[in-house]
Specification:
Blueprint: E1 6-8, E2 30-32, E3 54-56, E4 63-64, E5 78-80, E6 85-89, E7 102-104, E8 109-113, E9 126-128, E10 133-135, E11 150-152, E12 159-160, E13 174-176, E14 181-184, E15 198-200, E16 205-208, E17 222-224, E18 229-233, H1 239-244, E19 249-251, E20 256-258, H2 267-270, H3 276-279, H4 291-303, H5 310-313, H6 323-334
Parallel strand pairs: 1-2, 2-3, 3-5, 4-6, 5-7, 6-8, 7-9, 8-10, 9-11, 11-13, 12-14, 13-15, 14-16, 15-17, 16-18, 17-19, 18-20
Helix pairs in contact: 4-6
Length: 335
């Protein structure tokens, strides 16, 4: 069997572990073990298969670390390890795979930071690292991957800001960064991604105003910005999205966006907003700043203690809702 060039055993309900002897099949160019019930670790001997162009081990029950020897497979075009139980960090040696066009590591238990060496994989068109336990920031080297059309980093524990270099990925069609702990402002460079059809930033900690450059993204079908801390007014230029595609979905709920809202947006688009202007100053809109405004603010703090409103209520950011939040709000009213 050492002369085999292709081995396709996908979808055969195979069980057990992958034998280390797989490393003897050095003439293999394509190896498909996906869609089975394989267990155990990926043998390091897999790194001997230097002629592989396709390696598919996805949709199994494989566990343990991704072996660093994977970095030897420099001829790979496609690597699928998703939907397993793989853990540990993504090996930095994966940056050696500069011919990869598709990399799927989603739906595992991978942890640690995304290695900056992945910025060397300049031929990638599809990168899926979603639904893991990845931490740290998105490296500015992401901007090197100018051939990307699909980028899925959602459902991790990523922090920090979106690097402005994201605007260099002008071929992107899908950008999923939702369900992380990303913060800071949405970079205006995101408006360069004029081929985007789906932009999902839901359930993060983004603040500041929605950049007007998003109005350049007239191919959007889905723009999901809900459950963040975005503030200010919604730019009218967002209406460009609806003008190009009346069936687009724009979801902005549960932010701190203030009226007036663009006429093109429905109540369903805007949803509930906790506009800072509604609570600071003349909270009850009676034309005066007095004890009634302070009373409303106290009720606001005590009433919005649920997790999704906590950051808005914790005006004095000490991780608790207490008298210091009220003192800070009173100071805001009087000053």
């Amino acid at each position: 069997m050492t002369n085999l060039t292709e081995l396709n055993l996908r979808g055969n309900q195979l069980t057990g572990e992958i034998s280390s002897e797989i490393g003897n099949l050095t003439n293999l160019t394509e190896l498909y073990f996906s869609d089975n019930n394989l267990t155990g670790e990926i043998p390091s001997e897999m790194g001997n298969l230097i002629n592989l162009t396709t390696l598919r081990l996805d949709n199994n029950q494989l566990s343990g670390d991704i072996p660093s020897s994977i970095g030897n497979l420099v001829n790979l075009n496609g690597l699928g390890l998703g939907n397993n139980n793989l853990s540990g960090q993504i090996p930095s040696e994966m940056g050696n795979l500069i011919n990869l066009t598709t990399l799927g590591l989603g739906n595992n238990q991978l942890s640690g930071e995304i290695p900056s060496e992945m910025g060397d994989m300049i031929n990638l068109s599809n990168l899926n690292l979603s639904s893991n336990q990845l931490t740290g920031e998105i490296s500015s080297e992401i901007g090197n991957l100018t051939n990307l059309t699909h980028l899925y980093l959602h459902s991790n524990q990523l922090t920090g800001e979106i690097p402005s270099s994201i605007g260099d990925l002008t071929n992107l069609i899908m950008l999923f960064l939702n369900d992380n702990q990303l913060s800071g402002e949405i970079p205006s460079s995101i408006g360069n991604l004029t081929n985007l059809t789906n932009l999902l930033l839901t359930n993060n900690k983004f603040s500041g105003e929605i950049p007007s450059s998003i109005g350049n993204l007239t191919n959007l079908i889905m723009l999901f910005l809900e459950h963040n801390q975005l503030s200010g007014e919604i730019p009218d230029i967002l209406c460009n999205i609806y003008e190009n595609n009346p069936f687009s979905l724009i979801w902005l709920w549960n932010n701190q966006l203030c009226p007036p809202y663009p006429e093109c947006l429905s109540e369903q688009d805007v949803g509930i907003q906790y506009c800072i202007n509604d609570y600071f100053g003349d909270s009850n809109l009676d034309g005066e700043i007095n004890i009634l405004d302070i009373t409303l603010l106290v009720e606001f703090i005590l009433g919005f203690s649920e997790p999704e409103y906590f950051n808005l209520s914790d005006i004095y950011p000490d991780g608790e809702l207490n008298i210091m939040d009220i003192v800070n709000l009173v100071d805001m009213i009087l000053n």
